[in-house]
Design goal:
Layout (H helix, E strand, L loop, with lengths): L1 E5 L6 H5 L4 E4 L30 H6 L3 E7 L7 H8 L5 E8 L2 E6 L4 E9 L4 H18 L1 E9 L5 H4 L1
Parallel strand pairs: 1-2, 1-3, 3-6, 6-7
Antiparallel strand pairs: 4-5
Length: about 160
């Protein structure tokens, strides 16, 4: 299953739906993570907040390929995209294991194939380096075998890399 998580305007939704199974739009119409860890312990993979992100960790956890399209914010995801990723902590468990000689949380859904991040907007060399490092670390934590960061100079390039 291919999932696209994005912070683009609504007008891009139809284009994105042609290239994936599920589209999650980071539109800000949801609550931020409360840090209660209920999605880890009380109700695995289900947030106690009953909004549009109630089961987002199940959707992201089952994605063989996750494509994140985000505005570059100092070498990081946009706040709206980061908020959704914060709410998806339930895709792992509170238990730890070693992967690649490093301690990580045990994956609830197993390993996935590809985490691809498309970052649009101006990006400096240092921001690109920071973004690449963060993408690599997120791929390991989320259980992706491969990762890719593609900086976009403009959204006109979007259709060519989907």
């Amino acid at each position: 299953m291919k999932v696209i998580l994005h912070d683009l305007p609504e007008e891009y939704t139809e284009l994105l739906q042609q290239h994936c199974d599920t589209v999650i739009r980071a539109d800000g119409k949801y609550a931020p993570c409360q840090g209660c860890f209920g999605c880890w312990t009380k109700h695995p993979a289900e947030c106690r907040l009953k909004d549009s992100l109630h089961t987002v960790c199940r959707t992201l956890g089952r994605a063989d390929e996750l494509l994140i399209i985000t505005r570059n914010c100092y070498g990081m995801y946009s706040p709206a995209v980061k908020n959704i990723l914060d709410r998806s902590i339930g895709l792992s468990t509170p238990f730890s294991t070693y992967r690649g000689k490093q301690m990580h949380h045990t994956l609830r859904y197993g390993k996935q194939t590809l985490l691809k991040v498309l970052a649009y907007g101006e990006i400096t060399a240092q921001e690109k380096k920071t973004f690449a490092y963060m993408t690599e670390r997120n791929a390991i934590n989320f259980g992706y075998k491969k990762w890719e960061l593609i900086p976009l100079q403009s959204l006109a390039e979007l259709e060519g890399v989907l």
